[in-house]
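Hey, can you fold this one?
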Amino acid sequence: MFMRKKEESQAPALPVAPGTSPKIETIIGPNADFKGEVRSDGNMRIDGRFEGKVELAGNLIVGESGKVIADIKAQNVSVSGAVKGSVNAVGRLEILSSGKVWGDISVASLLIDEGGYFRGQSIMAGEQDFPLLEAPGSKANGPVLDAHPAKNN
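Sure. Predicted structure:
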């Protein structure tokens, strides 16, 4: 009779940053409109409208109804709604099937589900060795031969 209604969108299972709790401590609800700066050592979920700047030591979840115009820095970021602005995810950025991101991103790991949208530039953090690839016909593959055999002397 008094059963709890299941929430429309469950929080995705983002990795938990060391020293933080998996619990979401700050929520901007679907009927809220917030402008300003938010700094927190914990996790945050935005289901309403947010404009400004977000700096979290934990994770940020932008729900399906969330609309964010902000520069974001967080451990992990999951987007089911819309984000416009730079995203700096120390760990992972997930753009889920209903998610849209317009802006430059800097991430260690990027996941875009089928149907997800990303428009901007991306930088993958970390030091990766650039593979040394030789162009076809380089000395490593032998001499380059001309199509005219008389010129190959």
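Residues 76 and 149 are 59 Å apart (CA to CA). Let me know if you want another pass with a different chain boundary.
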